[in-house]
């Protein structure tokens, strides 16, 4: 299955409607572009965003043993339980944003006790990327499929817009390696402090990213995903591909999720037509990713949490951008 | 009636709760500060924002005869009718944001046909500020009272957060003069292109602002408001004062509305404790106003429409910021 490009004629028609509405041309700024893109995706001049879904993909990272995170790996299953209990940040934001939270455990290291509202453990966390590949290519494909499955489930349950979120202690290390490899950048250019690490841990994190990149030879996006991880990033790739295949807008969150968006666009370039950047985080590599995707973020609030929080937070703004195309035209308002 | 300062002990208690929640400290960025301020305003550690109200204040400006706007003054009543018919940008955004729109006609030049869901015409538009005072001090006070009345009505009908919006062809000229006078800045520093004027019209607008400032001698905020206008800006002052007096968060919109926020804070400095900046517009003077108020805007989407659009758009984000304080603590999640 391939992703169909968005029809540029719908985009043009939406812009024509945009300039006929009762406001000075351009006065709604970035909302105008967002609205026109949503119109073209939905193939209507009066787009509306209904129910949303945030698919939070969770998995563990072998590399977390290298001291690259401020938190131990045991936090991953705790936070998954927190998502299920409704106590996490994403639960509060999703409730306000009209979004249902789907929690996909694609590799949390808690055998035999499974976690997640959707369980498709490909393996119990990735292998340590500083030592070798995170997983096999078949496992990466399996994790992508798991993300696609949950996305399809959300769509069958009424979602009209999908956001992806991530949970996995150590995952900004994988995301940094993956981003460096995909964009041909140095570890230094894309590695940040994640949830907040010390100078010493940051030096260690950089060394780990460089080591992982040293093992990497392929330029194939699926190879890179398998070699650098993680399982939840792969699942997010699946969410974006399935959302775009279904013709729905898909919203990126922070650094690990946007790494997944980069992979999705390499696998299926037309995914880009459906992508919206929810926010820009404080991770320096996130800005590089957004530039590579040519996406302007909806929000810039200095978030660095993940879980899909920045994506879900942007959904009401996207909903407004869509609704604005239902304004009266100057003609309808008797003003011409 | 005076505005009571927000209790710093509540702010401190909210920050203590913020750092106990299941997220890395600081990882929710600016949302954390917003949430704590909302908690302190509501005097609870679990704030929630319910129903919102956007009070759109409309009036005409004598100075519009000087060619300072891209649109003729006749657009003001047309747009008020559009607000009432639900066809304007603010109607679409308010519906998504869970906000009711109150339209206050405090001086639209359409006698004897009144417009607005709330009508309190102080006069049929201001006098031309390039020639003399916009209105008398008594009229300015009357317009403030009109804004306060509608704000109180909205509060009695269940509003838990108030936003102010503006409609008035020519009002960025008044707002520029008022901002320059209040902040002790030059016309050049604070005058922009409003809804989008040509270079020639911009030169004319600057000359008009300078002329208006030349007539101005007082430094009293109420005198300046009366001399430089406008009636809808005065009504917005009333919305902010009444909202803060009632202990509710109040949200600024663009350049004219933020000029009103400046006046409100000069009249009652504690209004600042209740103010939230909805967005930063492209008007250069808006950035100066926000800096003077020490307010970081929630959104930066290059809007330049007014009507309360940027304020209403920020309400879902504020609602999320409040809701986030209801996250589980590490202790509640069994993570300590």
How much β-strand is present in the residues of chain A? 5-15%
Mean pLDDT of chain A: 96
The greatest interface here is: A-B, 54 and 54 residues
What is the N-to-C succession of helices and strands of chain A?
HHEHHEEHEHHHHHEHEHH
**What general outline of chain A do the C-alpha atoms trace?**
globular
Describe this structure in words.
2 copies of one chain form a homodimer. Chain A has 336 residues and is of the alpha/beta class. Helix content of chain A is 48%, strand content 10%. Chain A has a 6-stranded parallel sheet, with helices on both faces. In chain A, α1 packs across α2 and α5 crosses α10. The termini of chain A are far apart. In chain A, 62% of the residues are buried. At the A-B interface, α3, α4 and α13 of A face α3, α4 and α13 of B.
Brief characterization of the structure:
Chain A is α/β, with parallel strands linked by helices.
Task: Give the topology, please.
The structure is a homodimer of 336-residue chains.
Chain A: H1 8-20, H2 30-42, E1 52-59, H3 75-85, H4 89-97, E2 99-107, E3 118-119, H5 137-156, E4 161-167, H6 171-183, H7 187-190, H8 199-214, H9 221-228, H10 231-245, E5 250-252, H11 255-267, E6 275-277, H12 284-293, H13 309-323
Parallel strand pairs in A: 1-2, 1-4, 2-3, 4-5, 5-6
